[in-house]
């Protein structure tokens, strides 16, 4: 928050909803454009990473649009790798867009 305004959010959701995936979560991160490039995305990821052991999560997946280089760079710099690409699955402003699936395994401490 900044001056009592919400400027972004980070969240974890169950991945795929089956017991076999109970230690995997989907991570989502959003920052308002005027608050990007200030280290807040990194701070949010670092906080989430610090909570994974307590949450019993050892794998994170992220779905990021291919035309979002800043988010792709942030996640890649934090050890995420491309695990898949879903070509043309989204339509944004009348244009088909690809969705990249990024993932990272974390070791238990």
Describe this entry's structure for a reader.
This protein is of the alpha+beta class and 109 residues long. It has 2 helices and 5 strands, in the order ββαβαββ. The chain has a single domain, classed as Gcn5-related N-acetyltransferase (GNAT) (Aminopeptidase, 3-Layer(aba) Sandwich). The protein is 23% helix and 41% strand.
How would you describe this structure in keywords?
109 residues, alpha+beta, Aminopeptidase
Helix count from the secondary structure assignment = 2
Strand fraction equals 35-45%
Instruction: Specify the CATH homologous superfamily.
Output: Gcn5-related N-acetyltransferase (GNAT)
- Low-confidence parts, pLDDT < 50 over ≥5 residues? none
Apparent shape: globular
Largest beta-sheet details: 5 strands, mixed
Number of beta strands = 5
State the CATH architecture: 3-Layer(aba) Sandwich
| Secondary-structure-derived class | alpha+beta
Q: What is the domain tally?
A: 1
Across the major sheet, the strand order is 1-2-3-5-4
Average residue-wise pLDDT: 94
Helix content: 10-25%
Distance between the termini: 30 Å
Highest-level CATH class: Alpha Beta
Specify Rg, calculated over alpha carbons.
15 Å
List the helices and strands and how they pair.
Elements: E1 8-14, E2 24-31, H1 40-55, E3 59-65, H2 69-77, E4 81-92, E5 95-105
Parallel strand pairs: 2-3
Antiparallel strand pairs: 1-2, 3-5, 4-5
């Amino acid at each position: 928050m900044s001056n009592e305004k919400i400027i972004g959010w980070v969240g974890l959701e169950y991945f795929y909803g089956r017991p076999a995936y109970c230690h995997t979560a989907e991570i989502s991160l959003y920052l308002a454009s005027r608050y990007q490039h200030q280290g807040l995305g990194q701070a949010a990821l670092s906080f989430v990473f610090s909570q994974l052991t307590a949450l019993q999560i050892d794998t994170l997946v992220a779905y990021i649009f291919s035309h979002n280089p800043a988010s792709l760079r942030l996640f890649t710099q934090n050890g995420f790798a491309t695990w898949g690409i879903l070509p043309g699955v989204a339509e944004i402003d009348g244009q088909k867009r690809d969705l990249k699936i990024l993932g990272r395994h974390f070791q238990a401490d």
